[in-house]
Fold each of these.
Amino acid sequence: MAAVDSFQFLYREISRSCNSYFETLALVGALYTASRALMLLRDCCTLVRVHFLPRIIPCKKLTQRYGDWAVIYGASEPVAKAYTEELARHGISIIFVTQEHTSVRDTAASLSQSYGVETIVVLADFSLDQAASKAIKEAMRGKDIGFVVNCVDESLSSPQSLIEMPEQSLLDLVNKNVAVATLMTRLVLPGMVDRSRGAVVNISSGSCCRPLPGRVTLTALTGYLDHFSRALHLEYSGRGIFVQSLIPFQVRYLISSLKGWFVPKPDVYARHAISTLGVSNRTTGYWPHTLQYGLMRCIPEWIWVLGSRVLISSS
């Protein structure tokens, strides 16, 4: 009986001495819970502000906000092609810059016929160094260039080890997705600065947010476009230039069997992405993709990498 009384007395004394610690831990827990709730509320408000309000509230035409012409590089890619068509639907004339004339010739003719806009196709061989920029400058001369759109090469999405890539193919990919995209922006930017308006849109991939095994080049090159866009926006946003980094996740192509809200068709994605122009300088462009991005941020990187390896090894 004495042992029981001693235990109860000891328990009461320990509880009394630790009571202040319990209250402190409870306060810390409450503060943490409140902070997470505020962050969730902030993310929900951002989702509504970026993806829903611009589609509800009327605003000025794109031609009035930015300009009458757009320079597009990478228009043969499905997402960029759909984005270009959406610009044409808003009355924007298009200058296609391509290294292969046949890849965009039909697209240019179709846009002119469907939307009554002017289209110009510039064949530019960027392996000739500065010689390629002369044709682009000539095509832009005297035009109110309001947009420049660069799109990452979709062939990067196919899993491939770095050591399996031929050296020349690797150099071509870096040149096309890094050097040329940067050069295109450099060519268009001075005119935008003079007019104090314009939009630079770089379409990369959600893969830039987290590393993926077997997709080293995709992660690296899209990461460059993403950081290039963010740095450019920081430097030129005060001069009337809006720079946007679009980081879409999975988009449905003709050969894809994936369906659903989280895998939109390119034209659906483009309509949503255009509505975020001037609202968010870094976005997925499509609200279900933003939900995916938010979920991905909650997963620790080591769990993400482990899960990616298990997924790839089982496929």
Amino acid sequence: MELEFVIACIGVLPGVSGGGETRVERPYFDDVSPRNVSTVVGQSAVLRCRAKHIGNRTVSWMRKRDLHILTSHIFTYTGDARFSVLHPEPSDDWDLKIDYVQPRDAGVYECQINTEPKINMAVFLHVEDESHNPAPQPPVRSSAAAATIWGSQDVYVKKGSTISLTCSVNVHSSPPSSASVLWYHGNAVVDFDSPRGGISLETEKTEGGTTSKLLVTKAALTDSGNYTCVPNNAHPASVSVHVLNGEHPAAMQTSNRASSYLTSQLSCAAFTYLLSSMACR
């Protein structure tokens, strides 16, 4: 009788089954991190998420305003290279890092575990306008470290074609990160998740440094302007992009050369006249 009572008690103990097997614990969030995070425009933000007992399940981060999956496991699913996941093995931390935070990044982000039903934890990111705060100090750059955009300083593309800009930096970032190079169109950071779509970035690390390639498909007239490649540890480089609506760039360049030639001819004539006047005296 006593033996039967002991067996019955063991069968109801937490984590132990009557057959001697340990019950698998369900995943949950270790809610010890702040649910509200504040940062300043241009700085980095880290949204913390600690997921316990996930087993073979996957932790993902989703941006609530557009339901965009940003990361899943250790992989990034956005063309915006500012986003990355921090997961030091073998920890339970799955933190979302956002580099060079912009005002549009403010809002709710959800850390999710793909259980059935799915469980999630929301974190709110508050972004303070830099106009109300001291400007962040620019990173220290070596005088020899510089970015170079391949090709001419003026790039001509037809409307509807693809703008392709390649920027090479002769130093490595430290620590290595795909977000070590930012692209600006005018004064704004290029938004890879904008409703326009068709904008992507390819970053490659080599022994000689970093190469960043910006692709803008289906070029529109509004895509014209100044594009700047800004490394976080080197001097930037810029080019001017002209999206043509039927004009031919060769004709524009020929016109410019003709204008320069006429100007030089007039200058020579004026100089010749001046010399002849002095000789007559």
Amino acid sequence: MAANPPGQAFPNKTRVAILAELEKERRRLMQSQSMNTPGASIPLSRPSLKEFRDNAEQQHIAAQQKAALQHAHTHSSGFFITQDSSFGNLILPVIPRLEPES
């Protein structure tokens, strides 16, 4: 059997067989998808438990940030922003820049 040229992992016959198999699988998937009732939106995959937990955690953090920001604005004369912090702070104080008096 002759050696394949560099950069060619499979012989041409193997490559053609793989491509034919992929095309057959694609057609089978398209056919099974078209058999679903039109207009019905059925997700092909459910979100994983990790994605669900991450989404719930993000919503919880957003609610905490909003509550902390409202509390800070009502009980302080300073300015605050919501910002992701590597130290776990939900809001950060903003110090205004004052123009130097000349």
